[in-house]
Specification:
The chain is mainly alpha-helical. The mean pLDDT is 84. The longest helix has 25 residues. It starts with a helix and ends in a 9-residue tail after the last helix. It has three helices and no strands.
Length: 84
């Protein structure tokens, strides 16, 4: 299936070259942020989650890690990867 998708993408006429943005036309980002991105290829820092969301995500991933450990070492049940 992956090969079929790749073959389909290869047939598309796409221009994937980097094109710098004009900092003078920035509407959401500042001109300085656009210029930084044009030079470095990334922006930082952006806060995506507030502290309570970060704690909830951490607790969830800690739970998943512990559950996986228990399944592998105590119950000895194989853990199946998502999508397989």
């Amino acid at each position: 299936m992956f090969d079929e998708k790749q073959a389909g993408l290869a047939k598309l006429n796409r221009d994937l070259r980097f094109k710098s943005a004009n900092p003078d036309k920035a509407r959401t980002l500042t001109a300085e942020q656009v210029a930084f991105y044009n030079t470095n290829g990334y922006l930082k820092p952006f806060r995506i989650f507030d502290q309570s969301q970060t704690r909830a995500n951490r607790a969830y991933f800690d739970f998943l890690t512990a559950e996986t450990h228990i399944r592998l070492t105590v119950i000895k049940t194989p853990v199946v990867a998502f999508g397989t």
